[in-house]
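pls design
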């Protein structure tokens, strides 16, 4: 009887440990940036971003989700690096759009697509899809946008990225239920 109880206890521990799978930690929320930018031509004819200045996490649109709590405005992490890139023609490969470090973590967004939504003499709007990355979190699909306004000599840009974490899908509950059912069967056999 004692050896049977030990065997059943080992089986219960193994089943319980199988139900404890590592869970992904997806990124969620949104982050916005503001600052100045330089293009390779006038706003109406430009085809590439060639520089950025005074980039900060926007105060008007505070970070949400996983990004919540990051300092904004002049207190933003420094440097926040945006990539120079050509948007016409559209890039054929993915590229790191922005990156910065804060609190021992690296935050970044890799653009996988680029779409020019509107471009004229006073406005440029570009968007696309990609993946957000934060140290210790799963890379998560998201979207990005950059809007540029101003005259040919003073250009302001705003950029944002947003992601939606993927829910578990019920796997954890299924495994926990199976483990509890097995424990119930074991208890019934012992009785």
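designed seq:
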């Amino acid at each position: 009887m004692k050896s049977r109880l030990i065997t059943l206890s080992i089986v219960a521990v193994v089943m319980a440990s199988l139900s404890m799978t590592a869970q992904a930690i997806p990124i969620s929320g949104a982050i916005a940036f503001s600052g100045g930018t330089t293009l390779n031509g006038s706003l109406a004819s430009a085809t590439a971003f060639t520089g950025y200045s005074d980039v900060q996490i926007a105060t008007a649109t505070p970070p949400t989700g996983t990004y919540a709590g990051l300092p904004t405005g002049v207190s933003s992490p420094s440097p926040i690096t945006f990539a120079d890139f050509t948007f016409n023609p559209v890039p054929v490969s993915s590229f790191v759009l922005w990156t910065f470090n804060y609190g021992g973590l690296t935050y970044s967004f890799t653009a996988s697509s680029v779409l020019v939504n509107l471009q004229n003499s006073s406005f440029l709007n570009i968007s696309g899809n990609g993946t957000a990355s934060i140290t210790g979190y799963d890379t998560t699909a998201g979207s990005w946008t950059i809007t540029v306004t101003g005259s040919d000599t003073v250009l302001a840009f705003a950029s944002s990225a947003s992601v939606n974490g993927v829910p578990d899908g019920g796997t954890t509950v299924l495994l926990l239920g199976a483990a509890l059912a097995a424990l119930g069967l074991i208890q019934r056999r012992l009785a």
